[in-house]
Amino acid sequence: MANLYLYLARRDKTRIRILTVLNSNKIYQPFRLRDITHLNLPSNLASELQTVIHENRMMWEPWIERAFDYNELKVSLRKRRFENLPANGMPELVRQQEKIVHERKPKENVRTTRTKAKKEYAST
């Protein structure tokens, strides 16, 4: 099964931003997306994508392309004269979700932990 890359490409072809990667059996030649409703995405993902596309509409264009892996996508983009491609194919929307999941909790102050332990020991 191939991957379907939905990405934003700068109008001057200097950079791309991968928004999401989906699994698909459909064959998509690289084309500019006019509307994401025909992709039948879940409503929450579709609304997030629509927001990102709308906020970046002046300098970036939404594109969709099918590739088996990120290296194949990079080759295809280089043939179309895109430059400064990201080193990895990690989508931006997944990064945001991982950041929320792996957020670190603040550490307790060592001094307050010791005083709590002393008070508990003294009360016993």
Question: What do these coordinates show?
Answer:
By secondary structure, this protein is of the alpha+beta class. The protein is elongated, with a radius of gyration of 22 Å. The chain has one domain. It is about 40% helix and about 25% strand. The termini are far apart. Strand 1 and strand 2 (about 15-25) form a beta hairpin. A 4-stranded antiparallel sheet has the order 2-1-4-3.
Mean pLDDT: 80
Order of helices and strands: EEEHEHHH
Major beta-sheet overview: 4 strands, antiparallel
Q: Could you say how many structural domains there are in total? A: 1
Principal-axes geometry comes out as elongated
The total count of strands amounts to 4
**Strand fraction band?**
15-25%
Helix count from the secondary structure assignment: 4
Radius of gyration (Å): 22 Å
Unreliable spans: 95-104
Oligomer, anyone? single chain
For the biggest β-sheet, the strand order reads 2-1-4-3
Structural class, judged by helices and strands? alpha+beta
Task: Identify the notable features of this structure and list them briefly.
124 residues; elongated; 4 strands; 23% strand; alpha+beta; 4 helices; four-stranded antiparallel sheet
Summarize the structure.
This protein has helices at residues 43-55, 70-79, 92-101, 110-123; strands at 2-10, 16-24, 31-32, 60-67. It has 124 residues and is α+β, with helices and mostly antiparallel strands.
Please outline the helices and strands.
Elements: E1 2-10, E2 16-24, E3 31-32, H1 43-55, E4 60-67, H2 70-79, H3 92-101, H4 110-123
Antiparallel strand pairs: 1-2, 1-4, 3-4
